[in-house]
UniProtKB/TrEMBL annotation:
It catalyses: N(6)-dimethylallyladenosine(37) in tRNA + (sulfur carrier)-SH + AH2 + 2 S-adenosyl-L-methionine = 2-methylsulfanyl-N(6)-dimethylallyladenosine(37) in tRNA + (sulfur carrier)-H + 5'-deoxyadenosine + L-methionine + A + S-adenosyl-L-homocysteine + 2 H(+). Belongs to the methylthiotransferase family. MiaB subfamily. [4Fe-4S] cluster 1 binds at C51, C87, C121. This is tRNA-2-methylthio-N(6)-dimethylallyladenosine synthase. The gene is miaB.
Amino acid sequence: MKDLVFEEIEKNAPKEEPARQLYFIEALRSFVEMKKGEGYEAKAMVSVIGCQMSAKDGEKLQGILEEAGYQSTESEEEADVILFTTCTVRENANQKLYGRIGQLKHLYKKNKDMVIGITGCMMQEKDEVETIQKKYPYVHLIFGTHNIYKLAELLLEALISKERKVETWEDTNLIVENLPSKRKYPFRASVNISFGCNNFCTYCIVPYVRGREKSRDSREIVKECEALVRDGVKEIMLLGQNVNSYGLDREEELSFPELLRAVAKIPGLRRIRFMTPNPKDFSEELLSVIQEYENICNHIHLPLQSGSTNILKRMNRHYTKESYLSLLRKIKERLPELGLTTDIIVGFPGETEEDFQDTLDVVREAQFDSAFTFQYSKRSGTPAAKWDAVDEKIVSERFQRLLDTVRESSKEREGKYLGKVMEVLVEERNTENNMLTGRLENNILVHFEGGERLLGEIVPVKLEKSMGFYYYGSVV
Ligand code: SAH
Ligand code: SF4
């Protein structure tokens, strides 16, 4: 094995994808098998930091690793390969990664064969890659969002050469289909419908680290969903940074409502969710499709970001306070049982008390079921990074007021479903109260007593006690 040279293996590799990666997965598998003969345990851990896109990337990495003969582990001590999918949307996500890899130093000292790899959004930032190269010599593999599918090829090279492998791409037009992926839950899956983003909201790093918007072929998406359903999946989440612009970058492609309809028609698929629709191009047709199909969940995540027309303009969001509210009224009229969630940023540069009051106004009227609230985080390279920041104290004080207002305003919806019997997709056993936990189609959590066999099933549950953001109930 000592004489193994990566270039020799590479010589015979097909040039085309996915054939090339399938070849490298096999090559990695043979290599791992050989190493197992020398006592290598071939255990791998994938650690996800960030959003659902990052989690989906994690599933792809895990799929490739398992196909190549690695066994998954949750323990860093046991792992021979540890991979991180990273997030850089706010500064605290970056700090989280540095904390994690800092802790791995002592493990690496004990196991010099260990490969620590980092991929994802943060690795699309040159400064971060440089920092890691300088300060963390024991990180042996660095790759980005555009070449994540190349894991087997990159890992094999790192393993054979025993040298650090760094490969990141600025952008790509390539979408590689049909590589393995390993779901976290057997009954639930997420499916990418597009990658990247063209919107360039002025606070947001995503377009810089994920590249321009690229939609997948709708036939591939439907095929993947059909295969998932055959494999026992009951709920599918369609993922894109702005699902409403799905297909616009491809000729003769379906629109998002058309794609949603095609997915909803798949026999046996019980629940469909999607994320994220941008309010700026939310169509009537989309509402009609949601209304039309039972299996499209009554839940919309509609990011507000700010309620001030002035700030929205400076954020480059292309909607106003009034247009957001009138869209909401229309949605609620058509879908009265809808679950509504949102994202809100406080302390965007230049945000005045008056602007902030506009955000509170919208929150009061919208009565979101829940809101993901963030303090503005400066991302270098984005336009807003050059603008004057709001005083930190003011930001944290507004943040608290926002939380209070969200809680107050959602109170009116609390207990709305009390006494009703509703379907719950059972997700897991809650470690705190030892009850089963699942979600209603409107995304509200329900806890109830039940046996293991209910995991992954959709069961009718009577909602008996409202706890604000969640319910206690019992199986009917
Ligand atoms: N494509 C999605 C958002 C993806 S980022 C959309 O347009 O809604 C997820 C959320 O992170 C955003 O909705 C926003 O609320 C928040 N976010 C993005 N950049 C941020 C920043 N610089 N500071 C604070 N929050 C940010
Ligand atoms: Fe970021 Fe805006 Fe694109 Fe969402 S739509 S990913 S917030 S640039």
